[in-house]
Amino acid sequence: MRKYAVIYRSVLMENLQYAMNIAFGFISYFIFIYVFICLWNYMYASPEELIAGYTKEQMIWYVMITEGMWFGTRSGTVTRQAATDIRNGNIAYLMNKPYHYTLYILTKYTAEWGIRLPMYAALSISMGLTMVGRLPGFRLVSLLATLPVILLGITINAVFKLCISLISFWIEDSNPFQWIYDKLILVIGTIFPVEIFPAALQPVFRLTPIYTVCYGPAKLVVDFSWEKFLEIVAAQIIYLAVGCGLMFFLYGKGVKKLHVNGG
Amino acid sequence: MNVIETENLSKTFRVKQKEKGIAGSMRSIFHPQTQEIPAVNHISFQVEEGEMLAFIGPNGAGKSTTIKMLTGILYPDGGRAEVLGLDPSRKRKQLAYKIGTVFGQKEQLWTHLTPYDNFRFFSAVYDLPDREAEARIQELSDTFELSGFINTPVRNLSLGQRIRCEIVASLIHRPRILFLDEPTIGLDPVVKENIRSLIRQMNRELHTTIFLTSHDIGDIEKLCKRIIIVNNGQIVLDDSMSHLKYHYLNRKILEIKQQEETPLPSAKGITVLKQNGSHIKLEVDTGIIRINDALRLINAEHVEDITISNVPLENIITEIYKSADIGA
C-alpha cells in the first residue's frame, strides 16, 4: 500500500501547481448552477410545493452537490488517458513496474480529485448558502456519515469508467461508450434525481451503478435517513466488488492482447 | 551463469488491412481483413551475467518486441523466455524488482517533479526502505554527477541531464539486468560519451548485465563485447565484437589524392568506390590482395596524399542487414 500512497502524494505535488487552473473552471460551474437556480425558481410555484418529493431548496442543493461532484472529479486520467495509453502502446512503459496498472491509474485519479473536489465543495457550499439558503433539516452528523458514501460513489464511477477504457484492448475507440455512460450519469442522477423520472423506470435506475454514483450520496445529504444510508452503502459495496472484479478481469485478458507499435 | 535464455521465442502481430478509397473503407466495416506479421520468429539465444550485449537490427526487425517480451510487457505467441529464472509474462511484477529499463524515446520520470522526488517515488515503488533509498540516491547522484540539478523540475532539464536521471531511476533498486532501448538518442557527442562511460562503469563495478538496442554504432562499438543482429524477426548474426571486426575488417578503404588524373589500378580484390577527377576511393580485400601489392599498382610519383582506413562498422552492419534481406 505504501507505493500507492507515494503515487498519491506525487500526483498531489504535481497537481498543486495547477490549483489556479482548477479555479478557472469555477466560472462554468457558477454559470451552470445559476441557470439551474433560475430554472427551479421558475418551476416551483410556491416555496412549500414539492416536486418528486423534493422542496425547492432540496432540489437546488441536490443539483449543486451532484454538479460539484461532477466538476470536482472531472479528469481524463481514467478515460481518455487510459484509453490512449492502451491504443498507442504507452501502457507498456507504465506496466513494467512492480505495481498494478489499474490501481496506479485509480490512485493517480484519486490524487487529482483530492485537490479539485475540496475546492468545488467549498465553492458549492458558499454558493448554496448565499444564493439558496440553509438546507432545511440539515444536520452535520448526516454530512459526516455521507462523506464515505461520496468517496465510494466517486470510486465506483472511476472503476466503471476505467473498465470502459480497458475495452480499448479490443476496439479502436472506447470514447463513444464513455460518452453514453457519462450522459446517462449526467441526466439520470446528476441534473435530475431519480424520482423525477417515470415510476416504471425508477426500479431499473436503482439497479444501475448510477444509483450509487451520484444519486445516493446527494440524496443522503439533502434528505438523510439511516435506512437509506444502509441501502446505498450495501449497493455501493456490491457495485464496487463487481466493478473491481470486472476491471481486473478486463485488464488480465486485455494485456495478453497488447500490441505495441513502434517496436 | 545465464541470466537470459530464449528458445524459439516468437510473436506475431495481427495488423488491420484496408483497401484504398471510401469503398475500401466501407468494405472493411463488414469484412475486416487482417494480416499476420511475424515480428519475432523463433529466436533463441542466451546472455551470461555481466555481459554487455548489443541487440541490433533495422527498424521493424523485432528488437523492441523482443525486449518487451523479455521484460514481460508482451506475451509471446510461441517459444520460451526466461529472465533471471523467471517467466517474464507470468512473473512480470516479481521480475520488475530485478530488472531496469530505459527507453530513450519514452519518459518514465514525472516531468513536474524534481529528480530527487522522482527517485523517492521510484524507491517507494520498488519497496526500498527510506534510509536505504536516501543512501542509494546519494550514491547514484555522486556517480552520475546530478548534484547540480537534482532539485530542478525534470521539465527544465536538458536532454542529457534527463537521460542521466532516467538511467538513475532505473538503477535505484539495483537491477541485475538493465535493458537500454536507444539510450543515447538525440544526445550530443559529449553527453553520449559521458553516458557510455557511466554504463561501462556500472557494468564493471556492479556487474550489471547490459542488454542494449541502438542505431548508434558508437554505442555498440564502445560498449558491447557481443553483438546479435536481428532482421525480419530472426537472428542473422550472433558473434563477439572482436570476431566481427576481425572477420569483416579484412577490407581496407584507400583514399588517394593525386596531382593529376591517372589510370585506375585494376586487380582482383580492388573495387573502385568513387572517382572524382584526381581523387579516388578504393576498397581492397586483403584476403585476395595484400595492401602493399595494391599500393604498388598506384603511381607513387603523382600521389599527393593517401589514407588507409578500416571499413566503418556501420557499413559492415548495413551489409549484414542487406544480405539478410536478400536471404529472406
How do the strands and helices of this protein lay out in sequence?
The complex is a heterodimer of chains A (263) and B (328).
Chain A: H1 2-15, H2 19-24, H3 26-43, H4 56-72, H5 77-88, H6 101-131, H7 140-166, H8 175-187, H9 202-206, H10 210-222, H11 226-254
Helix pairs in contact in A: 1-6, 3-4, 4-6, 4-10, 5-7, 6-7, 7-10, 7-11, 10-11
Chain B: E1 2-17, H1 21-30, E2 33-48, E3 52-56, H2 63-70, E4 78-83, H3 92-96, E5 99-103, H4 115-125, H5 130-143, H6 159-171, E6 177-181, H7 189-206, E7 209-213, H8 217-223, E8 226-231, E9 234-240, H9 241-248, E10 251-258, E11 270-276, E12 279-285, H10 291-296, E13 303-310, H11 313-327
Parallel strand pairs in B: 3-7, 3-8, 5-6, 6-7
Antiparallel strand pairs in B: 1-2, 1-4, 8-9, 10-12, 10-13, 11-12
Helix pairs in contact in B: 4-5, 4-6
Element-level helix/strand string of chain A: HHHHHHHHHHH
Low-confidence stretches of chain B: none
Largest sheet of chain B: 6 strands, mixed
Structural category of chain B: alpha/beta
Uncertain stretches of chain A: none
- Looking at how many chains there are and whether they match, the oligomeric state comes to heterodimer
Structural class of chain A: mainly alpha
Instruction: Kindly provide the radius of gyration of chain B, computed on alpha-carbon positions and rounded to a whole number of angstroms.
Output: 25 Å
Q: How much helical structure, as a percent, in the residues of chain B?
A: 25-40%
Q: What overall geometry of chain B do the principal axes of the alpha carbons give?
A: globular
Gross morphology of chain A is: globular
Distance between the termini of chain B: 33 Å
Mean pLDDT of chain B: 86
Strands ordered across the widest β-sheet of chain B: 5-6-7-3-8-9
Task: Output the number of helix runs of chain B.
Answer: 11
Largest interface, by Cβ-Cβ below 8 angstroms: which chains and how many residues each? A-B, 25 and 34 residues
Overall mean pLDDT of chain A: 87
Please state the CA-atom Rg of chain A, rounded to the nearest Å. Answer: 19 Å
- DSSP helical segment count of chain A: 11
Biggest β-sheet of chain A: count, sense, barrel?
none
